[in-house]
Amino acid sequence: MSNKNYTMIHYHIPQDLDDPEQPNAYTIQLNIKDITYTDILKTFPIKGQFDFKFLYQHQKDNFWLDIKSNATPLPIVNKHIHVRAERIKKQQETQPIQIIQPVQQTPSVSQQTNDLMQF
Question: Which helix (H) or strand (E) holds 9?
Answer without folding.
Answer: strand 7-12
